[in-house]
Amino acid sequence: MTFPADLFPDTTRVTLENRLAIGGRDLVALAAEHGTPLYVYDVATVLARAGALREALRASYPGTATVCYAAKAYIAPWLLALLAQEGLGLDVVSGGELHVAARAGFPRERVYLHGNCKTESELAYALDQRVGRIVIDNLDEIAALGRLADERGVRQPVLLRLGPGVDVHTHAHLTTGAPDTKFGLDIASGAAETGVRAILAQPSLELRGFHAHIGSQIRDTAPYRAAVERVFAFAAAMREKTGFVLQEVSPGGGYPVRYVPSDPAIDAVAMVREVAAAVLAASQRHGLDQPELTIEPGRAIVAPAGIALYRVGSVKRGARTYVAVDGGMADNIRPAAYGAEYTATLASRVEDGGLTDVAIAGRYCETGDILIQKVSLPLPRVGDLVAIPVAGAYHLAMASNYNMTPRPAVVVVADGAARLVRSRETYDDLVARDV
Q1: Per-residue pLDDT reduced to its tens digit, 381-402
Q2: Out of 365, 404, 432, 435, which one is annotated catalytic?
Q3: Predicted TM-score (pTM) above 0.90
Q4: Which residues make Cβ contacts (< 8 Å) with residue 180, sequence separation at least 6?
Q5: Domains, the chain
Q6: Phi, psi of 331 (to 5 degrees)
Q7: Inter-residue contact 278 to 228 (CB < 8 Å)
């Protein structure tokens, strides 16, 4: 396999020494300075992806439109500072994510709190932080949020999460809008209408519109169009039955990224345009004014910007050649949890003679800890550096201390400069909260 440059961050280059560099910084030198496993993020790639989606939405939707970054993909103060400057909104799904946003100074009026089981303390925190929107998931939440808002003397703008009953062709764990899902209130059963009436009956809640996220890694826009049609048909029905007029809508996100060279080409910008067109068409078809529109990409912005860098600890020949590295399922659970596929390059020897098929094995005490089942590389040697691209989303966000291993350091690169934004955990960190 030749070097898959199109999967790596935009500024990735092969140096004269046959090593990988990103953002003008040699990865071998970064690994020597900061150790491994090491996650490296490229600022230029983040800005390019965020800017392209933002401008595509603005150009294709004549009404007010906002790109809301989904923090669950990866959240960190350095990233939120960039996205705030770019004018993006922010979706958070916990009090912890909201706290990071508050500490980073992210404008709270551009924060949307999601989640299917928000605690009362999280709802209270969101009200106290004056977040822009709370996305209601269930009837119990309506009652709790109404009471908490009333106690504070505020009227909180909310969206109601709908279950549009649209299935998508993706991994079962990534499907969120099918008829059988834990998220939102189902339209077909009448639960969503009950939710609308319950919110309208709460003086301290202002129903602004509807949210309907249907899943992730969706490559076809047909499910989005189907979901948008069902949401607008429901909105039109609610206008007739209750007098509620739709003012905002979010058809979610879930735009895919490529992880391996064999994945089909993806044009997330074109998908955004098609979703915006579907919203415009549905609003006209159902006689509704153009609502404010938000879309929620997370992975599509940050996944291509990050790489995971590991050092080879052993090379074992047998039924196949296992190349063991000093990271694995504790910093990237996706291969074990979803069967996710990745590719790799030797950052220390990009092109070096013939290729050998190898498996990249993690260091953790689990048979299933295989990061890559098969990839063709120059035969790795102990001490080589393995770089795995498209590692910016759902790695660090889902990382653990399994086997009591410290979580990795994170470095951000831009224009020849590198900045440590998260230090590597120490052994003392592992027991710091034990009492």
Answers
A1: 999 999 999 999 999 999 999 9
A2: 365
A3: yes
A4: none
A5: 5-42+303-431 (2.40.37.10), 114-297 (3.20.20.10)
A6: -105, -10
A7: yes
